[in-house]
């Protein structure tokens, strides 16, 4: 089953009574001998710190496998993965693309089949298993803003983001590799309704991006940069990963955000073909899916939900109400069309590279 926003609205959703009665996590089955190291791509910053605290360190404690995180933008991740396969020297084990990108990257990834080799899949949300990767988080690419800049009338929509007259201030957009959230935001700002977004009208989107370009002070490439830019670059408003926004706010920065018509993020863990530590990679993914404590801690840190169905029972009602997987928030999000992305990714990226470098 393809994971999307409707999967979460029509099936068991984090924060509902169904999850509070979730079954116990299945014990990890006997596994092949594990390598002593695991290399995992992350986006860096507070996001990586939360993964380390809630999953990497507990996995090391349980198995003895040392986890080495490597921070990289989406574009750098995909370029590096392809280059390593071409050179025949794969140095990473696990990467973290979007679920909608797995088909495009399938030639680089281990085929997981029906995920029978991952025992804790039985306690994960519906749609977690993908042939070339498993769901590891649910988030969105939100419209974030400095509350000090917009005390009386905060921005709520992408039309507000493009409205520099009524909402002045320095803006930031993503150049982390996949430009789809930026393109979708431009089309929504131009009046395209969510049911008319796909196929994406690239000509219309780039005309709209031409309008806002003079007001973009920062094109951020990593999660860490998207947090630090608020003070270093004096940003007032930005497109931002919801988890990074959540974590930035927890540092004390006066940040708020809107989920209105924002693109949903369904992040995946995927194992690279010919990786140096394949057994450790499968063991980590199984550990990740089976960790209710890690899922709850991760949600408290960065606001992302993991697929573990028992995590919600470890959170307070107030904490569960803030999760992105609540029906009220999920209803505001826009689904990516994976089939369109698969067919049009190359030409969209080429168009983006030409535009951003012009």
Automatic annotation (TrEMBL):
Q: Which UniProt keywords apply?
A: Periplasm, Signal, Transport
Q: Which residues form the signal peptide?
A: 1-27
Q: Which CDD domains match?
A: PBP2_polyamine_RpCGA009 (cd13589)
Where in the cell is the protein located? Periplasm
Pfam families, per the entry: SBP_bac_8
Q: Which family does it belong to?
A: Belongs to the bacterial solute-binding protein 1 family.
Mark the transmembrane ranges.
none
Output this protein's name: ABC transporter substrate-binding protein
For this protein, the record's InterPro entries field holds: SBP, TAT_signal
